Amino acid sequence: MELRVQPVTLPEAIEFNFSELKQEITERTSAYVGMVYTDDQIKSAKSDVAMLRKFTKALSDERIRVKKDYLKPYDEFEAKVKELTEIVDKGIENIDKQIKIFDQIKQDQKRLNIEELFKAMDFPKFVKIEQLWNPKWLNATYSMNTIEAELLEKKNEIIRNCHTLAALPNYSHEALIFYQKTLDIVGALDKVHELIELEEAKKKMLAKEEEPEEDAVPEPKMWVSFEAFINKTQAGLLKEFFNDHNIEFRPVKIKED
Fold it and tell me: At what angle do helices 172-182 and 144-166 cross, to 10 degrees?
């Protein structure tokens, strides 16, 4: 298939009495440019403007007519080229559909191969292929050897990160849980930092609550005797309560019912 266009002779310049018209129009319209019409001359003004508009319309109509004549050969050529293009496009569309179906089949098969490779590489159980997936893997230029190398590198990285988090002195368990869900080592370390800051804030709050007021006068203490009808377990709880609140106590007499 080859498009062969015969040599085209470009149209010559369109000749018309341009100079003559320009001179005449310039002379006749110069009077209208600075003219001021009186009330009595409004009828004449309307006649003048109608005459000028009629002339400009005649110019425009002739311009459109000549343009159509000049473009007629091109319009015919363009229509024929479009007709040929539409015929070719139908063939392209049919071929393109089959290519896309073929490519999709190959991509689906490659996806299955990658998933099988992932299973065979024995990743930690918490790792899902979706967390590691790279859309570029399905490109025809991406070889399975390259994909395997990337997966192996990612596996080693995950194992190293787990060892790092497990060795943390504080909140290693929480960090590992976070990492196993997200595979985000930075986020896991941030989580640890957040928990440590929260713990420190609680300690400061408790220490502040236990600090005696500087100007507070110690409240006087006194011995108070009382009896309680309790069993041994309850007596142990009462003793624990006294100890927790720094209350000095001593037994007076134990009565049994």
Answer: 160
